[in-house]
Amino acid sequence: MSLNIIGWAVPFFLFFIGLEYWYCRKTGKNYFQFQETIANLNVGIAERLTDVFVTGLFFYFFKYIYDNFALFSITPHWYTWVLLFLLTDLVWYWYHRLAHEINLFWAVHVVHHQSEDFNYTVSARITVFQAVVRSLFWAVLPLIGFPPEMITLFLLIHGLYPFFIHTQTIGRLGWLEYVLVTPSHHRVHHASNDEYLDKNYGDVLIIWDKLFGTFQKEEDIRITYGLTKPLERYSFLWQHFHFLLEIAYAVSKASSWKQRLNIIFGKPDNLDAGNRDLLEDKLLAGKQNLKMTRVQRQYISVQTAVSLLLLFMVCLFEKMLSASQLTLLSAFLLISLINTGAIMEQKKWVFYLEYLRLLIVLAGIGFLRQEAITLSVITLILAVFTYYFNTVKGFYFNYLFGAEAGTEKENGG
Predict the structure, then answer these.
(1) Nearest to 38 by CA among 362, 292, 251, 374
(2) CB-side exposure of 234: number of CA atoms within 13 Å?
(3) What is the Cα–Cα distance from 167 to 270, expressed in whole angstroms?
(4) What span, in angstroms and rounded, lies between the C-alpha atoms of 315 and 41?
(5) At CA 134, angle to CA 324 and CA 259, rounded to 5?
(6) pLDDT 10s digit of each residue in the chain, 413 long?
(7) How far apart are CA 200 and CA 96, in angstroms?
(8) Residue 44, CA distances (Å) to 123, 328, 331 in order
């Protein structure tokens, strides 16, 4: 079995993230906040991990449409590649625009706009749900008659460019500003300033925004990034699902199907912003925006580094891993991401996630080495850990949250 070269995308993007961070530290630019950076990377890790399972499905989805419904039969030539580029970028524009104008689509795209930073880590804030919706739009390409091989290869190349426009370190780019979506244009798109809202939807070419009236030049004003109503939460699950829950809550309060449909397919601006506050009170009990200690930052930094390394290994050796190995590694990674968000929100139930991670590690060892002695040692470790569960829990809280943490009432969320 061969290595999956797509796995090298992980160190490739991390190199440029590190380079941008180094440059900001050297020049004194405060473009990175610890919690925002970790949250951005966590979302990116989850998206890259789920891509291992779904990317092939997208290809077969395109192939099914092409084989059964293609209107034309387009073959690869230089001019058909140019046409594919233009159509792909145009479809992206309309997907992106509708993702800001329709609640159901905004629910899967909102994660990308939650960060109050704007740097290369923000480009990682893509979810598998967004990838699914995007592919539904791109389904028009095989319907027209572009072969799925062309589409898949081009989408991989096309996906590189947007990474490099998520930065504040690059200024205006002269005549390129008239043709391409530049960092300057994309800073406008990620801004929550009133004059910048719902502008610059293009992915590579800025001509679509100029053609359809959504272009806005970056002015000399201070940009505020993130949502118009900041999320102010680092819970991994809440970041992914809060807007879907807001829609569901609004739908549950609607009195007619017409109102429900208006909520689902209406504009995000028309959804009651107070719904989030009500849901946070019900589902996310406990404090927020707490300052992190040095120990917590170190623990999270190490945990994130391990998660990135595991992600790289999973992506690179995907074709060599058995289904059970892939499942255990993926479960460990996803629980680690939830764990990191819970630590940043100082949720005391995070210890139970640590226990679950231990079970996964031991299960993995058991799968790899099924000798009687190994299974006996695993059973002994579980027995000792379970017997001293509360003692270990107290040490853990004392280390991570402080001396009083072991006796505090556990937060919800």
Answers:
(1) 292
(2) 28
(3) 30
(4) 16
(5) 110
(6) 577 777 888 999 999 999 999 999 999 999 999 999 999 999 999 999 998 888 888 899 999 999 999 999 999 999 999 999 999 999 999 999 999 999 999 999 999 999 999 999 999 999 989 989 999 999 999 999 999 999 988 888 878 899 999 999 999 999 999 999 999 999 999 999 999 999 999 999 999 999 999 999 999 889 999 999 999 889 999 999 999 999 999 999 998 999 999 999 999 988 988 899 899 888 887 556 567 889 999 999 999 999 999 999 999 888 888 888 899 999 999 999 999 999 998 888 899 999 999 889 888 887 777 677 777 888 888 888 888 888 988 899 888 887 544 444 344 33
(7) 10
(8) 8, 19, 16
Residue with tokens 């290595």: 3
* Contact (CB, 8 A) for 42 and 343: no
Q: Cα torsion at 61, 62, 66, 67 (round to 10°)?
A: -40
Contact (CB, 8 A) for 371 and 379: no
Structure tokens at 380: 């002994």
Q: At a CB cut-off of 8 Å and minimum separation 6, what does 125 contact? A: 40, 43, 44, 111, 112, 113, 114, 115
Token pair for 42: 């966590």
Is 192:225 a contact under the CB 8 Å cutoff?
A: yes
Q: How far apart are CA 396 and CA 381, in angstroms?
A: 17
Q: Provide DSSP, 253-273.
A: H-SSHHHHHHHHHS-GGGS-T
